[in-house]
Each structure stands twice: as structure tokens, then as C-alpha cells.
Write a structure and sequence with these properties.
The chain has six helices and two strands. The protein is mainly alpha-helical.
Length: 184
């Protein structure tokens, strides 16, 4: 696919097209869900523009590509995916996030209490990304109440928010910054 023109004027009346060609309102929950995935990807781009550890940088680069896959997955109705021969988020993507968390957690101290978002600049942005990811997850839940979706999309977002939390803790750990525990 080659994009030769960025603007099409097709959305000027508040509608857009799904990946399968269906015209829908731009305020539809499906559009909000994959739009929030796009927002999350942009936050990850901001993090990658900062000086962060190599492990975090490597993980986020892979995740950015997977978020594009997830956006496409959410942009196409389930009944159209086989016709379009679409790649989708699979259980393998979820498993790799779990493996990453397990590996990073081996180096981190066990949590004693809730921690406050913050620490280094990279970790603070990772916490922001976690919150955007949770919003995307809530929108996907709302979408799945209305129509069928790939169940791995929800699983992926759920694990990704946990992964972003662990990556934030790991980034602070690498820099020697202690977690700030919530005081009850």
C-alpha cells in the first residue's frame, strides 16, 4: 500500500471507514478503541525519544509494531478478517509480554505496597502509557459488549498495561531510583 495523499476529505461529515470498507460515525466505540491504541503508540514514541535503558527501548520498539497490528485488528470487523487475510493479535503476543514481565521481575524487589507513578522521566511516561493502555482496554470491553472482537485483543491490552508498569519499575531500578510507596 502506498499513501500518496494524506487528506481525503471523506471524514469531513464525521464519518470514517473501517478496514473492511464500512462507513461508520467517528464517535463509535470501535473508533475510540483503536484511536486510543494509536494514542498509546504515540506515548511510547515519546518515551523512545528520551534516554531510556536498552532493554526498555527494545521492548517498546517491539510493542509499537504490535500496537499497529492491534489497531488493524480492531479496525476490521471479525467477519471481514478472513476475506482480507488479516494478521491479528494472537495468544503468542500475550505470552511474550508475560515472559518479558517474568524476566524483568527477577531483577526487581517484590512490591510491598502500591507505588506512586514517577521516578525517572522515562518511568513517569511509562506510567502515563499504562493509564492510556487501561483506557484502551476499557473501550475494548465496551466494544465487545456490542459486537464480536478478537479475544486476544483484550488479553493483550490487559497484559500490556501490566508490562508497562513493570517496565516503569525496571527503568527506575536501572537508574538506581527507588519506588515511592504510597503512604496510607
Amino acid at each position: 500500500m502506498r499513501i500518496t495523499k494524506v487528506y481525503t476529505k471523506q471524514g469531513d461529515a464525521g464519518e470514517t471507514r473501517l478496514g473492511g470498507g464500512q462507513k461508520v460515525a467517528k464517535d463509535q466505540v470501535r473508533i475510540s478503541a483503536y484511536g486510543t491504541v494509536d494514542e498509546l503508540n504515540s506515548v511510547l514514541g515519546i518515551i523512545l525519544a528520551h534516554d531510556i535503558s536498552d532493554k526498555v527501548k527494545s521492548a517498546l520498539t517491539i510493542i509499537q509494531h504490535e500496537l499497529f497490528l492491534l489497531g488493524g485488528d480492531l479496525c476490521v470487523l471479525e467477519e471481514d478478517k478472513s476475506k482480507l487475510k488479516m494478521k491479528t493479535i494472537e495468544s503468542e503476543h500475550v505470552r511474550k509480554l508475560e515472559q518479558l514481565m517474568d524476566t524483568l521481575n527477577l531483577e526487581l524487589k517484590p512490591l510491598e505496597e502500591f507505588i506512586l507513578p514517577g521516578g525517572s522521566r522515562g518511568a513517569a511516561f511509562l506510567h502515563q502509557a499504562r493509564c492510556v493502555c487501561r483506557r484502551a482496554e476499557r473501550l475494548v470491553v465496551a466494544l465487545m459488549k456490542k459486537e464480536p472482537i478478537n479475544k486476544n485483543a483484550l488479553l493483550y491490552l490487559n497484559r500490556l498495561s501490566d508490562t508497562l508498569f513493570v517496565l516503569a519499575r525496571y527503568e527506575n531500578f536501572v537508574l538506581g531510583i527507588e519506588d515511592i510507596y504510597w503512604k496510607k
